[in-house]
Amino acid sequence: MIAPAVTELAAHTSTARACALLGWSRATHYRAQKPVAQRERRPRPAPPNALTDAEREAVLARLNSSRFADKSVAQTWATLLDEGEYLCSMSTMHRLLRTAGQSRERRRQATHPPRARPELLATAPGQVWSWDITKLRGPERGVYYDLYVVIDIFSRYVVGWTVAAREDAEIAKALLADSIKVHGAPSSVHADRGTSMTSKPVAQLLVDLGVARSHSRPHVSNDNPFSEAQFKTLKYAPVFPDRFGCLADARAFCEAFFAYYNHEHRHSGLGLHTPASVHHGTAGEVRAQRAATLQTAYAANPARFGHRRPTPPQLPTAAWINQPSREALIQNN
Fold first, then answer.
1. Using DSSP, how many helices (H) and how many strands (E) does the chain show?
2. Spans of the chain, pLDDT less than 50
3. Residue pLDDT, tens place only, 185-218
4. pLDDT, tens digit (0-9, with 9 covering 90-100), for 300-314
C-alpha cells in the first residue's frame, strides 16, 4: 500500500522527500523498482571423496545385516573399526540411512500388549463391587494405617471396610469373604492392580465363589472411579483429622463415618437418596413421599413454582465403570 503512494508522491517531489514523509526506506523503494534477477542455481558437483554407488550399497547392506540390524550406527561403526574395517564415517552412515528412509530407532523395542479396558455395568445393587486401599496418617511421620473399603457401585453402599496396620492379602481376603457372607456374592469385583488386589489368596477366593475379577489398567485412576470418589468424600469431610492417634482411633472414626455415609449422606449421584435406601430398595417409597410433599406445596402456591409441577430427582437406573459400548451390551445379552 505504501509503495504506490511513494511513487505517486515522488512525481511531485523527490524520492528522498517522499520516502521521508511516508516513513518508507529508500533502499526498499529502489530495490522494489529494480528487483534482483534470480540466478540459476547449478547442481552441486559431487565431492571427489564421495562414496560410489557400489560403496553406498555395501554400507547399507552391512548396516541391515542380521548382525547389525538392531544396533545403533555408533555401535556398528565402533565394532567394525575394532575389527580393522572402515567403511565410512558415522555421519555418512546416518545420511545413507536417512536417504533410504531408515532413520529411526534401529534397536528392537519391547512391545507390550494393550491392557483391556474394563467395562462393567450394574443395573441393581449387588451386581458389581469395587474395592481399594488408602493410607491414613498415624501419630508420627512415616506411620500409616491402611483402610480397606468395598463399595457397591450401583448404590454406593459400603458393604465392608477395615483398618489395619499394614497392607496384606490375607486381610483383604478376609474382608471380601465377610462382606460376601453378609450381603451375598456379586457378579463382579473390580479393583486396581495393587499387590493385594492381584494376590493369589484374593484371586482364589473369588474363583471359588464364582465371582468375576476385573482390574484397572496400569496408571489409569479413572478405571476405578467409585472407590476414588468415596475416598475423596472421606478425606475432604470437615471432621477428617490430619492424623490419627492410634489404630483404635482410626477404627473408631471410620465406624462413625461409614455409618453416616451409608445411612445419612444424601448422594448426588443417587437422586439425593442415601446409599442404604437405594441398596435396600426403599428409595422408591422415599421418592414417592417427596413427590407428594412437592405436590402439596405446589397446590398451595402454584405461582411460587412458575406454574410448573415440581418433581423430585430421578433415581439411577444404571452405574458403570467405563460405559460399555453398544456392541458389548448386545454380546452380553
1. 13, 7
2. 333
3. 999 999 998 889 889 999 999 999 999 999 998 8
4. 898 888 888 889 999
Contact 121, 142 (CB under 8 A): no
The three cell numbers locating residue 22? 511516508
SS3 89: coil
Task: Please give the pLDDT value at position 252.
Answer: 95
Using DSSP bridges, classify how beta strands 128-137 and 144-152 pair: parallel, antiparallel or unpaired.
Answer: antiparallel
Q: Count of alpha carbons within 13 Å of 261, Cβ hemisphere only?
A: 26
Specify the DSSP class assigned to residue 216.
Answer: P
d(CA 84, CA 38) in angstroms, rounded, equals 50
Pick the CATH number of 118-333 from 3.30.420.10, 3.40.50.740, 3.10.310.50, 3.40.50.720: 3.30.420.10
Q: What type of residue sits at position 330?
A: I
CA distance 173 to 209: 12
3-state secondary structure 154-165: CCCCEEEEEEEC
- Residue 39: exposure state from Cβ atoms within 10 A (0-12, 13-18, ≥19): exposed
Question: From CA 192, how far away is CA 100, in angstroms rounded?
Answer: 46
CB-side neighbour CA atoms (13 Å) of 314: 3
**Contact yes or no for 161/172 (Cβ under 8 A):** no
Name the residue ranges covered by the structural domains of the chain. Answer: 2-33, 68-103, 118-333
CB 230 within 8 A of CB 237: no
Q: Judge residue 67's burial from the number of C-beta atoms within 10 Å of its C-beta, 0-12 exposed, 13-18 middle, 19 or more buried.
A: exposed
Distances (CA, A) of 11 to 23, 166, 278: 17, 93, 90
The pTM (predicted TM-score) of the whole model is 0.66
